[in-house]
């Protein structure tokens, strides 16, 4: 039984297609299907299912750090280290989380609007 019954679990298991742009032992990075910036890549844990950031435990600290560093490495590889970029993790309803397998959004490639304004 695989507990990661989310669309991202299916991407990890290669059951559905994705444009994978980054992979290491722990992290998979793929293009967001509905990009919100010229570059919009999602970084997810490959081997551990954590539904939301609120479900993360102290023992997940290294893995969550790896998501952030994978995004930074990819951004550097693509040449965004000087112009900059944004990383975001949405947690549950008010943040608009729709896929319950933690993921870090990397947004880059243009000046980004401000964020966090209540709708
Ligand atoms: P969130 O709203 O933070 O849960 O982000 C989920 C993201 O996953 C959204 O930006 C979606 O566009 C993206 N998404 C959903 N399904 C897919 C898919 N099959 N391939 C790539 N990105 C996806």
From TrEMBL:
Coiled coil: none annotated. PROSITE patterns: HIT_1, HIT_2. GO terms for molecular function: catalytic activity. The active site is at 103 (tele-amp-histidine intermediate). Pfam families: HIT (PF01230). A motif (Histidine triad motif) lies at residues 101-105. Transmembrane segments: none annotated. InterPro entries: Histidine_triad_CS (IPR019808), Histidine_triad_HIT (IPR001310), HIT-like (IPR011146), HIT-like_sf (IPR036265). Gene3D superfamilies: HIT-like. SUPFAM superfamilies: HIT-like (SSF54197). Residues 7-117 form the HIT domain. PANTHER family: HISTIDINE TRIAD HIT PROTEIN. This is Histidine triad nucleotide-binding protein.
């Amino acid at each position: 039984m695989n507990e990661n019954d989310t669309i991202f679990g299916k991407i990890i298991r290669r059951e559905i297609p994705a444009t994978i742009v980054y992979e290491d032992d722990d992290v998979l990075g793929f293009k967001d299907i509905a990009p919100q910036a010229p570059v919009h890549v999602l970084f997810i844990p490959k081997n551990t299912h954590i539904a939301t950031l609120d479900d993360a435990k102290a023992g997940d600290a290294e893995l969550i750090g790896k998501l952030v560093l994978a995004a930074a490495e990819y951004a550097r590889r693509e040449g965004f280290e000087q112009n900059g970029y944004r990383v975001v993790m949405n947690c549950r309803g008010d943040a608009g989380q729709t896929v319950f397998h933690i993921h870090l959004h990397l947004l880059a490639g243009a000046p980004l609007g401000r964020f966090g304004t209540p709708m």
